[in-house]
Amino acid sequence: MSDVDQGSLQYFQSRACNSQWAGFLRALAEELMQQMPVEELRAFFFVIGGRIATQNPLPGGASLADLESNANAYFNKLDWGWVKVRDLQSSLEFAHSCAPLRQAFGDNALSWASGVLEGLYATWLRQVGAANQLELHQIGGAEGAVDTLRFRLAHPSYFA
């Protein structure tokens, strides 16, 4: 494991869900999974992420580096990990590591709980001027020991 990976893992494990909320959030997740299919849960969490972004708009910036820095300043305040933004020419990638979703909601919740980040990024990107014809989608599942989640902003044809 590289020094960066080891540092990420230590950060991730030290920032587990606050113990006063852990039991409540796990029970909430279990009940939600009993009441709603995964697709509806994901859509619900997407809406929650959008609401969070609306209540916490990012400061303006002139570059992707500014976007990344402003997002990371917000995530740092919450202990929600961090994001790395990359320009892939035909899309933008948002690789978010160390979000405490597994710790908060449990192993079985990652398929839908990550919708909160997708909604957050989608709304922030609209706020900073992303074109309406572009879409943001999660690509794959959580990767590695630090649950890196990847999101792409691209034309809908990219996802077809």
UniProtKB/TrEMBL annotation:
One of its GO terms (biological process) is cellulose biosynthetic process. InterPro entries: BcsD_bac, Cellsynth_D_sf. This is Cellulose synthase operon protein D. Pfam families: Cellsynth_D. It comes from Hydrocarboniphaga effusa AP103.
